[in-house]
């Protein structure tokens, strides 16, 4: 379900990557996005997700 939403948001092809559950870490019963593992500038990364638990490590990026 995430790809169609991302497609709508990225009409001009600006998104450089899309990461899904396999890119998450399992933490306290939830899959959480750990942006530190990407090795990229966190100021240039956003998280689009419908579950607040998935961005608990980086709420400022959500």
TrEMBL record:
<dbReference type="Pfam" id="PF03031">
    <property type="entry name" value="NIF"/>
</dbReference>
<dbReference type="InterPro" id="IPR023214">
    <property type="entry name" value="HAD_sf"/>
</dbReference>
<dbReference type="GO" id="GO:0005744">
    <property type="term" value="C:TIM23 mitochondrial import inner membrane translocase complex"/>
</dbReference>
<comment type="subunit">
    <text>Component of the TIM23 complex.</text>
</comment>
<dbReference type="InterPro" id="IPR036412">
    <property type="entry name" value="HAD-like_sf"/>
</dbReference>
<keyword id="KW-0811">Translocation</keyword>
<dbReference type="InterPro" id="IPR004274">
    <property type="entry name" value="FCP1_dom"/>
</dbReference>
<comment type="function">
    <text>Essential component of the TIM23 complex, a complex that mediates the translocation of transit peptide-containing proteins across the mitochondrial inner membrane.</text>
</comment>
<feature type="domain" description="FCP1 homology">
    <location>
        <begin position="1"/>
        <end position="62"/>
    </location>
</feature>
<keyword id="KW-0809">Transit peptide</keyword>
<keyword id="KW-0496">Mitochondrion</keyword>
<keyword id="KW-0653">Protein transport</keyword>
<keyword id="KW-0813">Transport</keyword>
<dbReference type="GO" id="GO:0015031">
    <property type="term" value="P:protein transport"/>
</dbReference>
<dbReference type="InterPro" id="IPR050365">
    <property type="entry name" value="TIM50"/>
</dbReference>
<protein>
    <recommendedName>
        <fullName>Mitochondrial import inner membrane translocase subunit TIM50</fullName>
    </recommendedName>
</protein>
<comment type="similarity">
    <text>Belongs to the TIM50 family.</text>
</comment>
């Amino acid at each position: 379900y995430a790809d169609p939403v991302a497609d709508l948001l990225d009409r001009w092809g600006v998104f450089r990557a899309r990461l899904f559950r396999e890119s998450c870490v399992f933490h306290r019963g939830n899959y959480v996005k750990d942006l530190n593992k990407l090795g990229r500038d966190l100021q240039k990364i956003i998280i689009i997700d419908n579950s607040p638990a998935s961005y608990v490590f980086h709420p400022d990026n959500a």
